[in-house]
């Protein structure tokens, strides 16, 4: 589908690896003082400064993590950067550099790689990130994309998963479930397209869902917001696999339990409508959908006045003693045990 849309095809073999790297990286510029040497030498050089260095890597594989029949390459490039930046922001750190490694089969022409890097470049510009290196190689089948993000933070600003204490409030940014439902909409359209390629999809009612799936944004703004509010989280994690799964990580590592409230989960109206249409339970989707790339953190209870009413933040519950377990309080007041049924990259589909 994708390749057919592009009439111009330049084979990667014509350029060679160095030609390709030069061709792609000429559009990127360096903007951080800490980047002493970027692309073009045997290794990049960063100024270590007096701060702590924060590093995170992700590997994305075609057919496992993304499907190019509905994921445009530019969006894939953008999203792959977001996934990594999100992990850096979840440490309450600032992201500054990335490296990008790519393996592609000869089914991809140069123009496809340009599209992918256009998305990576847009993300770098928008989030003020330097591309400082990486590798490009051929694969026998499909595409593999690995990105490493490098950030920094003052030692006293870093936030880990293991600092939550009983009575702490559990806070989330943004809303949940939209990216998962966006994927369901795109999957459905793909099936319709297979049956009738003439069929033009009507996606008007799903714009927010599809945008959240194809062009997620990492929460770069939250570290600054928390500074402004004068709140330091006791623990923090980014929500890539659904709220349940991330709460399990926080509670396990902090040796605590938690109580969250069904009626406090922030949902977009499009999520509620799509759940009705797909006959899905919106709470389950919010808790287990995944790919929201929002942040979940805990704050001491005396920060309540600073957090409440902020349009970016929702208080969804509180931390309890470990022996209380992980509980969801339903709208009807019933207590049910939370299960970590987050999206699992290794599970059989
Ligand atoms: Mg993470």
From TrEMBL:
Pathway stated in the Swiss-Prot or TrEMBL entry: Cofactor biosynthesis; thiamine diphosphate biosynthesis; thiamine diphosphate from thiamine phosphate: step 1/1
Coiled coil: none
Binding site for substrate: 65, 291, 343
Catalytic activity: thiamine phosphate + ATP = thiamine diphosphate + ADP
Binding site for ATP: 117, 134-135, 161, 240
Binding site for Mg(2+) 5: 241
Binding site for Mg(2+) 4: 42, 56, 87
GO molecular function, one term: magnesium ion binding
Known EC number: 2.7.4.16
Residues involved in Mg(2+) 3 binding: 42, 87, 238
Residue ranges of domain PurM-like N-terminal in the record: 40-152
GO terms (BP aspect): thiamine biosynthetic process; thiamine diphosphate biosynthetic process
Keywords: ATP-binding, Kinase, Magnesium, Metal-binding, Nucleotide-binding, Thiamine biosynthesis, Transferase
Similarity comment text for this entry: Belongs to the thiamine-monophosphate kinase family.
Additional record remark: Reaction mechanism of ThiL seems to utilize a direct, inline transfer of the gamma-phosphate of ATP to TMP rather than a phosphorylated enzyme intermediate.
Record's function text: Catalyzes the ATP-dependent phosphorylation of thiamine-monophosphate (TMP) to form thiamine-pyrophosphate (TPP), the active form of vitamin B1.
Name of this protein: Thiamine-monophosphate kinase
Organism, scientific name: Polaribacter gangjinensis
């Amino acid at each position: 589908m994708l390749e057919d849309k592009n009439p111009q095809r330049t084979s990667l073999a014509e350029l060679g690896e160095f030609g390709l790297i030069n061709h792609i990286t000429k559009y990127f510029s360096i903007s951080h003082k800490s980047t002493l040497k970027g692309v073009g030498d045997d290794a990049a050089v960063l100024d270590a400064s007096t701060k702590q260095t924060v590093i995170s890597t992700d590997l994305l594989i075609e057919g496992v993590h993304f499907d190019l029949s509905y994921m445009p390459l530019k969006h894939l490039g953008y999203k792959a950067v977001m996934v990594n930046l999100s992990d850096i922001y979840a440490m309450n750190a600032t992201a500054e550099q990335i490296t990008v490694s790519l393996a592609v089969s000869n089914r991809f022409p140069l123009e496809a790689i340009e599209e992918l890097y256009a998305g990576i470049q847009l993300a770098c510009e928008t989030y003020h990130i330097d591309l400082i290196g990486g590798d490009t190689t051929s694969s026998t089948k499909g595409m593999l994309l690995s990105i490493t993000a490098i950030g920094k933070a003052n030692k006293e600003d870093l936030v880990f998963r293991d600092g939550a204490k009983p009575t702490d409030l559990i806070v989330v940014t943004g809303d949940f479930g939209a990216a998962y439902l966006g994927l369901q909409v795109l999957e459905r359209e793909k099936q319709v397209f297979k049956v009738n390629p003439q069929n033009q999809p009507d996606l008007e009612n799903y714009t927010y869902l599809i945008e959240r799936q194809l062009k997620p944004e990492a929460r770069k703004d939250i570290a600054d917001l928390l500074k402004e509010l004068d709140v330091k989280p006791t623990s923090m994690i980014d929500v890539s696999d659904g709220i349940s799964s991330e709460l399990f990580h926080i509670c396990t590592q902090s040796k605590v339990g938690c109580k969250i409230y069904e009626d406090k989960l922030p949902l977009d109206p499009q999520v509620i409508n799509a759940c009705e249409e797909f006959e899905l339970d919106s709470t389950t989707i919010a808790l287990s959908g995944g790919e929201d790339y929002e942040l979940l953190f805990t704050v001491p209870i005396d920060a309540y006045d600073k957090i409440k009413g902020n349009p970016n933040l929702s208080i969804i519950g509180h931390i309890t003693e470990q022996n209380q377990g992980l509980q969801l309080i339903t709208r009807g007041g019933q207590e049910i045990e939370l299960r970590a049924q987050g999206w699992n990259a290794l599970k059989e589909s």
